[in-house]
Amino acid sequence: SLYVTNLPSAKIQKEDLRTALYMLFSTYGPVLDVVALKTNKMRGQAHIVYRDIQTATQAMRSLDGFEVFGRKMKISYAKSKSNVVAKLDGTFKLPTTATAGHVEVTDLQQSIFNAPVPGQAAPATSGAPSTLKPAEDAASPASRGTKRPRDEEEDESDSDVAMEEDSDDE
Fold it and tell me: Are 2 and 60 spatial neighbours (Cβ–Cβ below 8 Å)?
């Protein structure tokens, strides 16, 4: 990936900038992605993602100092691997947060989620015999419902009415 700075930020729309950068950088090889954000932190900067380092190096050497929309670009290698490249080579990992690894379940949560469903009897205790029947196989005829007969209309001749012909020549 290449890191491009000193790009115009106020004069041009983000999509126009991305398209122009794509057209310019794709002359050196296939561009996988162009990331140009308009946030305060990323204003005037872009990341150009190539599949391999050779095409990125060739583009960087040729376009460093090239004038785009009245400003000379400054190009360097990106510090980290792009998500697109990481997905391609199989090293991509979803970003994790510090709290995502350990979740603590409280007693209140346990009592809410383990409570019986309203309108049903309370679950049987471990000492009482179970009155539940084992689930039947879905393919067995006993578990299938019966098909209702279709209510046929007695007078079917009225349903086939010929369409009126409209003439546009009037």
Answer: yes
Q: Is 102 exposed, middle or buried (0-12, 13-18, 19+ CB in 10 A)?
A: exposed
Q: 20: alpha, beta or left, given left = phi > 0 and alpha = psi -120 to 50?
A: alpha
pLDDT digits (tens, 9 = 90+) for 99-145: 455 556 677 767 776 777 666 665 555 555 555 555 555 566 666 66
Number of Cβ within a 10 Å radius of residue 58: 14
Please report how many Cα atoms fall inside a 13 Å half-sphere around the Cα of residue 47, on the Cβ side. Answer: 15
96: phi then psi, degrees, rounded to nearest 5: -115, 155
Q: How far is 59 from 21, CA to CA, in rounded Å?
A: 12
Q: Are 82 and 47 in contact (CB under 8 A)?
A: yes
Question: Could you tell me which residues are beta bridge partners of residue 2?
Answer: 48, 77
> Which residue ranges form the domains of the chain, and what is each CATH number?
2-80 (3.30.70.330)
- The C-alpha atoms of residue 25 and residue 9 are separated, in whole angstroms, by 18
Beta bridge partners of 5: 74
